[in-house]
Design goal:
The protein is α/β, with parallel strands linked by helices. The protein has helices at about 15-25, 35-45, 55-65, 100-110, 115-125, 140-155, 170-185, and strands at about 1-5, 30-35, 70-75, 95-100, 130-135, 155.
Length: about 200
C-alpha cells in the first residue's frame, strides 16, 4: 500500500509523527510532506526538523524510524510536479494529520495551491480514501460546514479527540488512541489501545 501523509500547521504534530512510525511498522510505502506552518509547529512542539532538502529529510527520518530508504520518501509541499499531484499516480490512501482549519477549508473549496491541497483534491476526484485529523477548539460554523462538505465528498473526518475508557496512564497513551483511530479508518491493524469490552 502507498500512503501519503501530510503534516500541517495545527497543534498536534506528534500525531503525524506517530502515524508515520506506525505506518512504517505495518509495511506500507510512505511518502510524507509538510506545509510551511506544519514544519514550524513540528519543530516547536517536537524538536523534529522537517525543513530542508527533501532527500536529506527522508534520510533523517529513515534513520529515526529505522526503515529502508525505499519505503520512505519526503516531498516539498510546493512541489506540484510530484507524482501524488496526478490522478494517474495517486496514492492508495492520504492522511492529513494534524489538519489545520486553513488546510481543511482550502481542500473543501477545491483549491490546489500546494501539493497537500492538490493531492487531497486528487483523492476526492478519484474516489480514494482521504482521512483528515482536524485539531481545533472551539469549532466555528465555518469549520463545521467545511467538515460536513468534505464528509459528503467522501473524506473521513477523525477529530483529535482522545478517549479515557482505556484508562490512559501517559500522554503517549492519549496520542496512541487517536493514532489508532486513524489507523482503524485506514484499515491498518494495530494494538495501540485497549478496545472497549476487550478484557485481554
Amino acid at each position: 500500500m502507498r500512503i501519503l501523509l501530510a503534516i500541517t500547521g495545527a497543534s498536534g504534530a506528534i500525531y503525524g509523527l506517530r502515524l508515520a512510525e506506525e505506518l512504517l511498522k505495518s509495511g506500507v510505502t510512505l511518502t510524507m510532506t509538510a506545509s510551511p506552518s506544519g514544519i514550524g509547529v513540528c519543530r516547536f512542539e517536537t524538536g523534529v526538523e522537517l525543513a530542508g532538502e527533501p532527500g536529506e529529510i527522508a534520510r533523517l527520518l529513515t534513520t529515526r524510524w529505522q526503515t529502508s530508504p525505499e519505503r520512505l520518501n519526503f516531498r516539498d509541499s510546493a512541489d506540484l510536479w510530484a507524482p501524488e499531484a496526478s490522478g494517474s499516480a495517486a496514492p492508495d490512501l492520504m492522511i492529513v494529520a494534524p489538519c489545520s482549519m486553513g488546510t481543511l477549508g482550502r481542500i473543501a473549496a477545491g483549491l490546489s495551491g500546494s501539493l497537500i491541497e492538490r493531492a487531497a483534491d486528487v483523492m476526492l476526484k478519484e474516489a480514494r480514501p482521504l482521512i483528515l485529523l482536524p485539531r481545533e477548539t472551539p469549532l466555528s460554523a465555518i469549520h463545521l460546514e467545511n467538515m460536513l462538505r468534505l464528509s459528503q465528498a467522501g473524506a473521513r473526518i477523525v477529530p483529535a479527540m482522545p478517549a479515557f475508557y482505556h484508562q490512559p496512564a501517559s500522554l503517549d497513551a492519549l496520542v496512541d488512541f487517536v493514532v489508532g483511530k486513524v489507523l482503524d479508518q485506514a484499515g491498518v491493524p494495530h494494538t495501540l489501545f485497549k478496545r472497549w469490552g476487550d478484557t485481554a
